[in-house]
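Here is a protein:
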Amino acid sequence: MSGPNSPLQVESCGLALACVPGKKTATRNPQPAALLCGLGALLLVGCVHFHSQPLSPTETAASLEARSLTNAGLRVFFEKNLHGDLTHWPPTAWDLDMLTLAAFYYNPNLEVARADWRVAAGGIETAQERPNPTVTVSGLHEPVPDAPAPWIPSVLFDLPIETAGKRRLRTEQARHLAESARLNLASTAWQVRSQLRAGLVDFIAARQRLAILQHQVSLREDLVSRLQSQLQAGAISTIELNSARLALIRARADQADAQRLLGEARPKLAGALGVSARAVDGLEFEFELAAPRGVEELTTAEIRRLALLGRADILGALADYAASQSALQLEAAKQYPDIHLAPGYSWNAGSVGEHDWQIGATVDLPILNRHHGPIAEAAARREASAARFRALQVKVIGEFDSAIASLRASQTNAAALTVLLAAATALQISTQQQFRAGAVDQLEMLASELELNSAEQARLEGQVKLQQAVGALEDAVQRPFELPQEIFESKRTDAR
């Protein structure tokens, strides 16, 4: 219960100060108590209190398992980035752009990159802070006859003054590091899209491959059945039948392998999205494995130049180099010592003046070292940053050239397989017409259908290789695309 003479308790940042209004610690000296109360009030300003946020693996796992592509929050994210209200939710079919938005909403790698960027951005505020002054309170025991107290209290301040623009250079370095982290977020977003595209190609190809092989197994089963009838009639030998049976066994093995690949592709696609595998069950996708349009636009010399100068990781490496430049400048500035002003006050009850004031200054003397070691380390780190940048550009050149060569070869292969499929289709149509006319039998008809099936499977593999080559070229170029603004902001990613 407080009253006019009760102590007022002040708690701040783990410190507790007691000030008793209306009372004096000494009849002739109220200044030290008032000074301590004033310092206590200053400590109250701007304190940030810690709040515990325990992480529960059980709750986190449950939230991740509950993620879905029908989430209301995901719909809001879509409407913001598509600039309009969605009349149908969820979509009846998902194309690559819509899946990319869903991956931007859910993928955990973006959460990590976003958190790293915020840590780096917080470093700017840290770098801009000025060093706090310090205060030392002490007492000297000096018994003096007839003095009211044998203690001489004193207060000594330390006021640091940074020189040579150290705070500005420190802030520049922090800004460059924050920009590097921001560009890393953009680079991570591209990697998420790349992984998603690869997963989508694998999933659709696995599904089509399984359908082709299922049809092939059906055709070979029909063929074996008819050959068995002919063997019983004595029209063929067991060698022909055994050969057909062996081909059927191979087809069934290929079908089982295709089923395995489809089972692996589904969680891979879900993982790229950042959801569980069951979240993609029953979804329809709009993605053609045929050669995409506009791919030739990525093979020009201008695009090559843009890849070498404008990729997010290239710009991030430049920001890292700029940060190393600022770090070197900061170490060079540290050759010039900071100044520490040291004003002080003491109250001597036994002296005539009672109040004693003093002023002093502290400066490091660069006698034993001139800070050459840290400067040399910072210069070496700058050279290492430059070497990493050059190595990254060499890597981009290699990726671009390799992707172009793979694309050309894949285009040639896909064109040849398209011709093969056209020939097999024409043969199957001709055989079917002859079968209707009675010129060929059912076995020849089945043989033409198997040739068409093999051609379809070969063309599918060619299309997959072409899509993979296109993906590699896109990764080498990292053709700029506009990132949703929300990707740089915090958001809830649970299923609610």
User: Anything to note?
Assistant: The longest strand covers residues 151-161. The beta strands are 8-12, 15-19, 94-95, 134-141, 151-161, 285-286, 339-341, 344-347, 355-358, 361-363. The first helix runs from residue 31 to 44. The chain is about 60% helix and 10% strand.
